[in-house]
Amino acid sequence: MLGEKGQYNMAWHAIHMLPEETAQAASDVGAKMLLPAHGGKFALSRHPWQEPYRELTRFSQGRGYKLLTPEIGEAAYLDGGKKQNFASWWENMK
After folding, report:
1. Helix H or strand E encompassing 34
2. What is the pTM of this model?
């Protein structure tokens, strides 16, 4: 499943999901994998740029899906045939 992981703000809640809502949506539809989309390009909100990744990672703990967090431009294989472990690359972004 592609899930929203972009900048968020309660003022934009009607058009942008919060990280916990994205995690819940993936669980609700029975996703096997969650690939975050719609983020990582601009800092538009008042939270730190890395926060959407941090929070989605936190809210994905213990869920029935694998969270895929490839670095921007990195390949992610969705067939499940290749074991992939992505580093927390967003922590090194400034």
Report:
1. strand 33-37
2. 0.88
